[in-house]
Amino acid sequence: MGAEPDPTAPDASTEAPVQVSAEFATDLPGVPDSLQRLWTPHRMAYVSGEAKSRDSERGCPFCASPGKDDAAGLIVHRGEAAFVTMNLYPYSPGHLLICPYRHVADYTDLTAAETVEIAELTQKAMRVVRAVSKAAGFNLGMNQGEVAGAGIAAHLHQHVVPRWLGDANFMPIIGRTKPVPQLLEDTRRLFAQAWSTA
Asked: 105, 123, 176, 195: which sits with the fewest CB atoms below 10 Å from its CB?
C-alpha cells in the first residue's frame, strides 16, 4: 500500500509554475541538441479539445464573437448578415473566416442574403489581404461536417487563407508547428483599417 499524502505538502494544482534560468539548465535532465523550442501553451485548449464548440449556439465561438468588441472578438468587419474574423488558429498569417451571424451548419441552409454577403465578404477579404500583406494567392473553402474536416461543424464558416511563394516549409510537417510572424490583434487592426479603402 502507498504512503498517505502529506497534508502539509503544497497542492500541485495551485503551485506557481517553475521558472528555469539558463544558468541552472545544465543541472536538468535532457541532452542538448541544435533544435530551438517554440513554446505555445495557449494552444493546449485547442489540442485537448477544450476549445471545441458544442453543437449548440451556447458555447459556439462564432456566435459569441459578435457579442464582443471588435478587438476582443478578433472581428475585422461586421456586415448585415455575416462578419469577418481572424482565425485564432491560423493556417497562415492573415487567415480570415467569413461567418453568418445565424447559427447554421449547412451551406444549403443559408438564406439568399447570407449566401450573397458571404461571397461578397470573401471577395473583399481577398482584396484587403492583398493590399495589406501582398498575398500571392489564396486557398478558399468550407469544410462541411466533421468528417470533412470542420473543426467547428455546427456553425458554417468560409476560410480565406492567404498564400505566398515558399510559405510552406518543414515546420508544420516535421515540427508540427506553424510559425506566425505577426500577432493576431496587429493583423486584425491592419485589415480593419484597410477594409474601407481596399
From this structure: 176
